[in-house]
Structure formats: structure tokens, C-alpha cells
Write a structure and sequence with these properties.
212 residues; Nuclear Transport Factor 2, Chain: A; 5 strands; 15% strand
């Protein structure tokens, strides 16, 4: 699997995870997680295929799409806290918010170029292995078309209250869970200089990536 293919797969996974504004609130609350992922996956792939700005990796367009459609369906606070590990609890609210912002920017800037690879892909949702009362599940999928199938899995939990019934909090691309990947990277920076060192490193990486 090439680096660009992995970039495509991850950002497509983010987009797929958050495209549910096309459904009614009641439908979102009642929909099974595998049905939601399957329906929304194909909706998003079809959207990308017809949007040249998304295909080109236009960061303004991608950022707007993420804020508008993805964040309501991803528990990004939980994702960031898990990646930061124990240091998250020691961070101030301001540091936690800054870390979420820098992490989101890092992910989008790192993976946006992969959208150029989307052409004739389709989504194959695998049978669920869960019990009816489970509050956390894994939805396994394959993106097929344009070469070797790309494995993309989603960890979701049952979200209380209004809005979508399920929220994504981790993504697996070809056997690599995103939280595990970044937890190792974050720990190196935190051990070297605490949460401030991590924030500084992320800000510098985002600034460097933004100039490319």
C-alpha cells in the first residue's frame, strides 16, 4: 500500500464517518451503525467524485467540509484525549482545545492529497459481530475499485441525547488504528517537554505543511 493510498484511505474514512447531515434526526438516532456507515460511505464517495476542489485537496474546501459535516459525527475530543494519554487530564481546558485544533489540522493537512485517488470506488460493509445491546461496536469495511481493496474499520459508541445515534472515535486503515499511531508520536513529545512541547511541535508541523 503506497503512502498516498494510505492518505486517501484515512481522509476518506473521516469524510465517510461524518456525512450524515443528509438523514433526518430520527433516522440518524435509530439507524444501525453498519447501515449508517455503508450508506454514508457511498454518499461521500459520490460527492468527492463530483467535487474537483475536494479531489484536488483544496484545504479550504476540505476544512469547511470537515467542520460542517464530520465533526458532529466524530467524538474528536475522545479521539484526541486517547491519543494524548494521561497528559490529557493534566492539561488545562485551553490546552485541550488547542490540542484538538492542532490535531485536526494535522490530520487534514497530512491526508488531503489522497483524495486525488478517488475514482470508481465502492464500499463493501462486512457483517457485524456484535450483540443488540452493545454500546460500542466495530464496523468493518473494504473500499473496492482502483486497485487492491483498502480495509477501513470504525470504532463507534452509542451516543446519548440528541443527534446521531452513533459516534466514531477511532479509525483503522489497513490494520493500523489512528489513535495507536498518534499515541506513540505524542508520547515522545510529552516525555520530552510536557503538553507544551507537544503543542509546539504540532503547531510547527502544521505551519510547515501549510507552506507546501
Amino acid at each position: 500500500m503506497t503512502r498516498l493510498t494510505r492518505r486517501f484511505a484515512f481522509l476518506a474514512a473521516l469524510l465517510i464517518a461524518g456525512a450524515g447531515l443528509v438523514a433526518s434526526p430520527q433516522a440518524r438516532a435509530d439507524e444501525a451503525p453498519d447501515a449508517m456507515v455503508g450508506r454514508l460511505s457511498q454518499d461521500v464517495l459520490d460527492t468527492i467524485k463530483t467535487d474537483k476542489n475536494l479531489q484536488s485537496g483544496n484545504l479550504v474546501r476540505v476544512m469547511a467540509l470537515v467542520d460542517d459535516k464530520i465533526m458532529p459525527y466524530v467524538d474528536f475530543r475522545r479521539m484526541t484525549a486517547a491519543a494524548a494519554g494521561p497528559a490529557w487530564r493534566r492539561a488545562t481546558p485551553e490546552q485541550q482545545q488547542q490540542l484538538q485544533d492542532e490535531f485536526k489540522t494535522l490530520l487534514i493537512r497530512t491526508y488531503s492529497n489522497g483524495l486525488r485517488q478517488i475514482s470508481n470506488q465502492t464500499v463493501d460493509v462486512q457483517p457485524m459481530r456484535s450483540a443488540p445491546g452493545d454500546q460500542e461496536v466495530v464496523v468493518r469495511t473494504f473500499i473496492r475499485g482502483g486497485g487492491e481493496p483498502v480495509q477501513m474499520d470504525y470504532r463507534l459508541y452509542k451516543a446519548p441525547g440528541q443527534g446521531p445515534g452513533w459516534k466514531v472515535y477511532d479509525l483503522n486503515v489497513m490494520g493500523i488504528w489512528i489513535i495507536d499511531t498518534y499515541r506513540t508520536q505524542f508520547a515522545q513529545q510529552i516525555n520530552a517537554g510536557g503538553i507544551d512541547r507537544l503543542l509546539q511541535t504540532l503547531a510547527e508541523r502544521n505551519k510547515s505543511n501549510g507552506g507546501k
